[in-house]
Specification:
Blueprint lengths: L3 E6 L16 H24 L4 E5 L10 H16 L4 E4 L19 E3 L5 E6 L6 E7 L24 E7 L16 H5 L5 E5 L5 E5 L2 E4 L15 E7 L5 E7 L3 E9 L6 H18 L4 E11 L2 H7 L2 H18 L6 H5 L9 E12 L4 H6 L3 H13 L2 H11 L7 H8 L3 H19 L4 H7 L3
Parallel strand pairs: 1-2, 2-3, 3-4, 6-7, 7-8, 8-10, 13-14, 14-15
Antiparallel strand pairs: 1-11, 5-6, 9-10, 11-12
């Protein structure tokens, strides 16, 4: 067997429209719209720089079956660059770009092989000497919804010494949050005799098995806060003995993040503002040349809790941070940002866009003092203690308190899925809400809050 290398990518979703974000300036919105193309351009450059023997793409190249001419032209540009370097591409269609969708206006070039609706196999060669190195098997979605186990169609060639790669766009073991298309089990894949399963459809990067390799590279560019973290593809090096080594390579132009910040120890709005700005600067330094879209979740307890929960300060700070970042985006360092995005790079330092704030904070309480206090609030906290100590009382309390919500089917299902710890947390939250409403009557609570 000959050594070779290839790129495994999936879920390009070119020309994703990006909707649902408010307060975004036009320049940033344009860069977000361009980000899938920028990631694709980076993938093409990576393949050329690493001199791979071929690329496999496991479905959903386009974001919609009715792909835009713009997306097709940009895709063709990438294919043309690969042709100049003799790098072939093997791809399958997924649920977003099935074969039944409107046919492409532009024909695929000869070095790009698209698998049909039934599993079929082709042989890939090493570019340096034309030696056969791998058998690739794949099948494209004929329609947008495929519910059969496509793995059953895949067959390893008996006695073949070549490395076998299966391209599959599907859901392994029914992963939640994703359509159960082309469902199969990890056991199915492991029993197939293939050496490497190049998967697509799940946008979270995962290696489900190393013997054989069963790999989701994730999508090449996150498209919302639901797709947070670095995105890219895998470079796969296969040695002469058939052992493979994988290295993840980032391709994303925009990084989506969730960041948690504690308010513990912060006594003033100024200290809170400084902590947020410090975190923004850290993210800017960590991701030069990229756009980071971050949503902050504030946690912990402290005197700022009531202010953040009931006052306009959070909204005002978010507006001010966005104003500053808009100015940075329009500044000299990003004057060529739109043109640079076409090359997959942004000049200068990174841009960090605050997408929003979530509050999971609590009041700073002298709980022991409240439990000993001879007051309505003290009695309420003692009741909460007794309730939390008995699981059946927690169930009864939560069910009674939220009974008015049970008519809503979605809310009823959410309530049924709450575990005991989540229900105990609801009791604690109820205590804190009562404390916030009654704090003026409690000297213990005022002492716990401190000056603000």
């Amino acid at each position: 067997m000959r050594a070779f290398r290839f790129l495994h990518a999936a879920d390009l979703h070119l020309d994703t429209p990006f909707s649902g974000m408010s307060g975004v300036p036009d320049r940033l919105r344009g860069l977000l719209r361009e980000s899938t193309f920028a990631a694709f351009d980076r993938m093409i450059r990576l393949a050329i720089e690493e001199a791979v023997d071929f690329i496999v793409i496991s479905g959903d190249i386009y974001d919609a079956a009715d792909s835009s001419l713009r997306a097709q032209l940009r895709l063709r540009e990438g294919w043309d660059k690969l042709r100049e370097h003799g790098i072939p591409v093997y791809l399958i269609r997924g649920n977003h770009d099935p074969l039944a969708g409107r046919r492409l206006r532009l024909a695929l070039p000869g070095h790009v092989y698209e698998f049909g609706p039934r599993a079929e196999s082709v042989t890939a060669v090493r570019r340096s000497d034309g030696e056969p190195v791998a058998v690739l098997t794949g099948s494209s979605y004929p329609t947008a919804a495929v519910h059969e186990n496509l793995v059953l169609q895949y067959r390893r060639e008996p006695g073949s010494p070549l490395y076998h790669i299966g391209l599959l766009h599907g859901n392994v073991d029914g992963q939640e949050g994703h359509d159960a298309y082309a469902p199969c089990s990890l056991r199915d894949l492991q029993a197939s005799g293939y050496d490497y399963w190049a998967l697509g459809h799940i946008h979270k990067r995962q290696i489900l098995s190393e013997s054989p390799w069963v790999v989701y590279p994730g999508n090449i560019q996150g498209r919302s806060l639901k797709e947070s973290g670095p995105k890219g593809c895998y470079l796969v090096e296969v040695a002469e003995n058939g052992e493979a080594e994988l290295s993840f390579r980032r391709l994303d132009q925009v990084l989506w993040l969730e960041s948690r910040l504690a308010i513990d120890g912060l006594a003033t709005e100024e200290a809170w503002k400084a902590r947020v700005e410090e975190r923004l600067d850290e993210l800017r330094e960590l991701e030069p040349g990229r756009i980071t879209v971050v949503r902050f979740t504030f946690t912990g307890r402290g005197p700022l809790h009531t202010l953040l929960q009931s006052g306009p300060e959070a909204a005002e700070l978010l507006q001010e941070l966005r104003r500053k970042e808009s100015g940075r985006l329009e500044g000299t360092g990003f004057a060529a940002a739109d043109a640079a995005a076409a090359e997959g790079l942004l000049p200068g330092e990174g841009i960090v866009w605050p997408a929003g704030f979530k509050l999971e904070t609590g009041m700073e309480l002298d709980r022991q003092g409240l439990l000993a206090e001879d007051s309505f609030l003290g009695e309420l906290f003692r009741l909460g203690e007794r309730t939390a100590a008995e699981p059946e009382r927690v169930e009864e309390f939560v069910d009674t308190a939220l009974a008015s919500l049970s008519d809503n089917r979605h809310l009823r299902r959410m309530l049924q899925e709450l575990d005991p710890e989540a229900k105990r947390e609801l009791v604690r939250r109820a205590e804190e809400l009562a404390a916030a409403l009654l704090n003026e009557d409690s000297p213990q609570l005022r002492e716990g809050r401190g000056a603000s």
